[in-house]
Design goal:
There is one protein chain. It contains 5 helices and 4 strands; from the N terminus they run H-H-H-E-H-E-E-H-E. The relative contact order is 0.17. It folds into 2 domains: 52 residues, Orthogonal Bundle (Arc Repressor Mutant, subunit A); 80 residues, Lrp/AsnC effector binding domain/regulation of amino acid metabolism (RAM) domain (Alpha-Beta Plaits, 2-Layer Sandwich), CATH 3.30.70.920. The chain is α+β, with helices and mostly antiparallel strands. The protein is elongated. The chain has a 4-stranded antiparallel β-sheet with strand order 2-3-1-4. The protein is 29% helix and 17% strand.
Length: 179
C-alpha cells in the first residue's frame, strides 16, 4: 500500500459512497486509477465497503458475547462449526480463560436460549461456556487507520513522521501524485 491507497481508504472511511471522481479530484489523479485501486484493495481483502446497520433498530433485541471452552485438538474445526450458525456475527480463537470468543445477535432472550441449547451446546467438543449479554453499546467502530506511526508519538517526534502517508486533503499542490 502506498500514499494514494491510504488516501483512498481515508476518503471512503469518511464517506463510503463518495464518488471515485471526487476522490480522484482530491488526489489529482484519474477516476480510472481510483476505480482500479479500489478493486485491487477489495480483491486483496484490504478494503470492503459495506452498509452497516444498527441491529437494535431492525428487530434484534439481544446481543451477547459467549466465552467457549473447547477441546484443544479440534479447536479450528469447532470454531468453523460455530461460525456457520446464522446468529454468530463474530468469532475469534483466543488465549485466556476461553478458547473462543463468540458474538451473537438474537431476536430476544428466548432466541438466545434456543441458540445456546439447540445449537451451541450440540457442537461436539464444546466443554463449557459463559454468556455475557450486552446491555448497551458504548463504542463500536469499523474504521481504523493502518499502523504507520506509534499512536503515542506526535508527528513532530515520530521517527517516521516525515514518511507518514497524507490524507486525501493534505497534499500541497506541488506534492500531488501524478500517477
Amino acid at each position: 500500500m502506498d500514499k494514494i491507497d491510504r488516501a483512498i481508504i481515508k476518503a471512503l472511511k469518511e464517506d463510503g459512497r463518495m464518488p471515485f471522481s471526487r476522490i480522484a479530484e482530491q488526489l489529482r489523479v484519474s477516476p480510472g486509477m481510483i476505480r482500479q485501486r479500489v478493486q485491487r484493495l477489495n480483491e486483496q481483502g484490504i478494503l470492503q465497503v459495506v452498509a452497516v446497520t444498527n441491529p437494535l433498530k431492525i428487530g434484534y433485541h439481544t446481543m451477547a458475547f459467549i466465552g467457549v471452552k473447547a477441546e484443544g485438538n479440534r479447536l479450528q474445526e469447532i470454531a468453523r462449526q460455530i461460525a456457520a450458525f446464522e446468529e454468530v456475527i463474530y468469532l475469534s480463537i483466543c488465549s485466556g480463560a476461553f478458547n473462543l470468543l463468540v458474538e451473537v445477535l438474537c431476536l430476544d432472550n428466548s432466541h438466545l436460549l434456543s441458540f445456546l441449547t439447540g445449537k451451541l451446546y450440540s457442537v461436539e467438543g464444546v466443554r463449557d461456556t459463559e454468556t455475557f449479554i450486552s446491555l448497551d453499546i458504548v463504542k463500536e467502530i469499523y474504521a481504523w487507520d493502518s499502523p504507520t506511526q506509534n499512536p503515542l508519538e506526535d508527528d513532530s517526534t515520530a521517527t517516521n513522521g516525515a514518511d507518514a502517508p497524507k490524507s486525501a486533503l493534505e497534499y500541497p499542490v506541488e506534492e500531488a501524485p501524478t500517477t
